[in-house]
Amino acid sequence: MTTTDRPTPSILLHVGVIMVLAGLWYVLPDYHRAVFSRVMVLAVFAMGYGLLFGYTGLLSLGHAMFFSAGLYGAGMTMSMLGWNSLAGLGAGIACGAVLALVIGLLALRTTGVAFMIVTLMFAQVLYLTILYFNEYTGGDQGFSLRRAARQIGPFDMTDPATRYFAALVLFAAALAVMLYVVRSPRGRVLVAIRENEERVRMLGYDVFAAKLAAVVLSGALCAAAGATYAILFGYVGATFATIQYSILPLLWVLLGGAATVLGPLFGTLFMYYVVDITSNYTTAYLLFVGVALILLVLYFPKGVLGTVRERWLQWLP
Amino acid sequence: MAAVTPLLETRGLSCSFGGLRAVDRVDFTLPAGEIRAIIGPNGAGKTTFVSLVSGRIAPSSGSVVFEGEDITGLPAHRRVRKGIAYTFQITSIFPKLAVFDNVALSVQRALLHEGRLTAANLRQGAMDALERTGLAERAREISGNLAYGHQRLLEVAMGLALKPRLLILDEPTQGLSDGEIENFVMLVRRIAEDATVLLIEHNMPLVMELAQRITVFDRGRILAEGTPAEIRDDRAVQDAYLGASADA
Amino acid sequence: MAFGPHLLLALLEGLVSSAVLALTALGLSLVFGVMRIVNVAHGEFFMLGAVFAWWFSSMIAGSPALGFLLALVLAPLVVGAIALVAERLVLRRLEYDPEATIVATIGMLYIFEQLALMFYGPEARAVPAPFDFRVTLPWFGYSGYKLAVIAASVLVMLATWYVLTRTRIGLVMRATQYDRETAQAFGIPVGRVYAGVFALGAMLAALAAVLIVPIQQAHYLMGTDPLLLSFIVVIIGGLGSLRGTVLAAVLIGLTEGIVAVFFSPTLAKMLATLFVALVLVFRPQGLFGQAPR
What we know:
The structure holds 3 protein chains of 3 kinds. Chain A contains 14 helices and 4 strands. By secondary structure, chain A is mainly α. Chain A has one domain (7-311): ABC transporter involved in vitamin B12 uptake, BtuC. A two-stranded antiparallel ribbon of chain A has the order 1-4. A two-stranded antiparallel ribbon of chain A has the order 2-3. In chain A, a hairpin with a 2-residue loop joins β2 and β3. Residues 1-5 of chain A have low confidence and may be disordered. Chain B is an alpha/beta fold. Chain C has a domain at 20-222. In chain C, α1 (3-35) runs antiparallel to α10, α2 (42-59) crosses α8 and α5 (144-166) packs across α6 (168-178). Chain C has helices at residues 3-35, 42-59, 64-91, 98-119, 144-166, 168-178, 180-185, 190-212, 224-237, 242-262, 265-282; strands at 134-136, 141-143. Chain C is mostly helical. Chains in contact: A-B, A-C. Chain A binds chain C through residues 59, 61, 106-107, 109-110, 112-114, 116-118, 121-122, 124-125, 128-129, 131-132, 247, 250, 254, 282-287, 289-294, 296-298, 301, and chain C through 38, 90, 93-94, 98-100, 102-104, 106-111, 113-115, 117-118, 122, 228, 231, 235, 264, 266-267, 269-270, 273-274, 276-278, 280-282, 284.
C-alpha cells in the first residue's frame, strides 16, 4: 500500500472490472452467465474474508458462520415472518454483524493458532445448532424460498438477467466498501496491525477495538453475500455452514492474492471453474481443492494478484 | 522541585518474572522539561522499568503517576494518548510500508481523535516529523529498505510525531555511527525544547553530554541519582557499573 | 433394562470410545507438543488406518484373527510411511510455520479423503473381529473384543509413556520440545526428530483406527469426528500435555458415551464444542494444564 497520491489508475481499473462484468452478460452463453452470478456473490464472501485475513492478518477458519448467518437471517425472516427481500437482506446483514461482534469479543482474546481453532469451533457450533433446530431450519435438507418472496420492488430475482445484475450491484458495492476501507486511515491501521501489532499499540491505538471493527465489518460483508445468495438462488441449507465453506474463502483469497481487493474475485472465479470442470470427470473433485491449497502455500503464498503487484503494479490496492 | 507536580512519578513500583524481581520497589521522580538518562549494567531492570511506565507490561505492585494522575491501571494505548511515547530498543517499524505511512500512522491517531483528519493536516504533520529527523527526502521509500541508522531515526520520528509530553528512548544510538550519533544529540536537544526526554543509554560520553540528570539502576533498584558530575564521582556507581563494564 | 445396568452399559461403551480417542488424541498432542504445529489431517491418518486395515485383513480370507493381526502390524506402518513422506515434502519446506502448516494440512485432509473415495469407494466396510467371545454379565452379554480394545489402548499408552520418560528417544523429543535451537546446538537432529514424531503421531491414529474397525465400519469420511474430538481432548487437556490429554480423553469419551445414550447426539456435540471453544478462550492452558511459565 502506498499513500493516497495515485488514486486514478486504481479507480479506473476497478470501474473497468465492473464494466467488463456488466458487458460479459451480453457475450456469455446462459450456463456461464449463471456461473458468473454465483461467483460474484461468492466473491463478496471472499472479499469479506480477505479483509480480515489479508489486510488485518487474522486467519479465521470459521467464516462459514457469517455467510450462513446472512443466509439464514434472510431466509428465515422471509419464509417464516413473510418479510420482503430487502428487509430480509437487512436482517441477514444484521445477523452477521451481531454474530461477528459476539465472536470477535470472545475469539480476539486469543491469537494465532488458538484463534484459528476457536473460530473453527464456533462455526461448528452454529452448524450443529442449525441441524439441531431442524424444525425451523430444515436441517440438512434446508429449504427453498418461494418465488413471490424473491422480489425487490419491480425486480424479480428469479429472472436470470435481473439476478446477474443484482449480483453485480452487490459485488460493486462490496468493492467500493473494500476500496474505501483499504485506502482510509483506519484501513492503514489494520495493515499496520498485521505488520507489527505491538508498535500500533505503542502509537496509541486501541488494537483490540480496531480488530473488533475489522471482524464486524468482515462478518457483515460475508453475511451480505449469504443473504444475497438466499434471495438470488432461493435455497437455504446447512451445507453452507460446514467447515468446507470456511476453508473455501481462505483458498479463494490465497489463490487470488491476500491483501488485494480484486484477488478474491479472481480466486473465486478460477476455483469455481476448476471444481466445475473436474466434477464432470470425477466425484473426487475436492482433491483439486487440496492440491491447490498445498501448492499455494508452498510455491505461491502471495497469490496471483499479490505477485502481479509485487512485480509490476505497485499501486494495486 | 517539591512544590511543582512532577511530570512522572513512580511509587514502590515492582515487577517480578517467576520469582526474579526485575524492578524492585522503585520510587522515581521526573520533573517536566528535563533530559534524564537511565544507565546501569545489563539486566539492571532499565527496560523493564520504562516498559512499566509506558504500560507494555503490568507491575506486580506500586503505582505510576503522570501529571498528577494515577495511570497504573491504564492500558498502554491510553497512556500514549496521555502523552507518553515509547521508542523500541529493537527497531520496531512497519517494514513493508513507506516511510511516510509509518509516520502518518502516528499523526493520524491524534487527528482522528480531534476530528481534524484531512489529507492536508496528515501530510503536514507527517512531513514535519520527517523534516525534524532529516528523513523528508526519503518519505516515499519502503521503510524496510532504509539503512539501519535511518530506521532508528524513523523510529524516533514516529515517537516525535505523537507530539508527546514524555518521550522514552530505549537505547536509541545502538548501532549508529559517530556521525549519526552527533546528529542524534542535536535532535534530542531540539526535542527537549517541548518535551521531557527519558533516555536509556549505554554510551557514557553521550549520556554525560546530553543528560541533565542521571539515574543509575542496579539489580532492579535505583543505586544513585544526580547530575553527570555527581554520578561520575560517586564511589558506589564506580564500583557497581563504571569500573565493572568499562567497555560499555 | 433397569437404570443401573443401562448406566453400566453406557459406561462400558464410554470406556471403549475413551480408549480409542485417547490413542488418537495422543498422536495429535505429541505432534503439537514437540513440533508446535496443528495437524488438521490427523483424522485422515485415522481414516487411512481403517481403510488399510480393511484392505490387509481382506487379503487373508478365512481367518479373521490372522487377517486382523496382519492389519494391526501393517496398517500403522503404511500410514506412518505416508505421514513421513508428507512431512518431508510439505511441512519441512514450510519450516513448520504454524499458520501455513494448518492451511497445508487442510489441503492434505482433502487429498487423503478424496484419494480414499477414488480408490476405496464410498461404501462402508466392516472388518471381522479377530475373536468372537462374549463376556456374560448378570444383565447383558458384552463383547470381549471391546474389552480387549480397552486393554490394548492402556498398553500402548503405557508404552508411549515409557518411551517418552525413560528412554533416550524420549529425552531427545523432550529436549526438542523444550527449546528447538538449543537442542540443535547440542547436536540433536531436529529435522529427523520432527519427521519421526509426525510419523509416530499418525501411527497412533492409525492404530486406534485398526482397533475400532471391527466395531465401526471403515468409511472415507470417518476421519472428521475423531479429528474434532481429538482437538477437544487436546485443548481441554492442555495443549502439549500428555497426561492432560489422556485424562481429558477418558472424561470426553465417558461423557460422550453417557450423554449420547440419554440425549440427542447433536445437542451433546453442540454443547461440547461450545464448551471447548470457551475453554480455549478463557483458559488456554486447558482445564488440567498449568498456567504458562
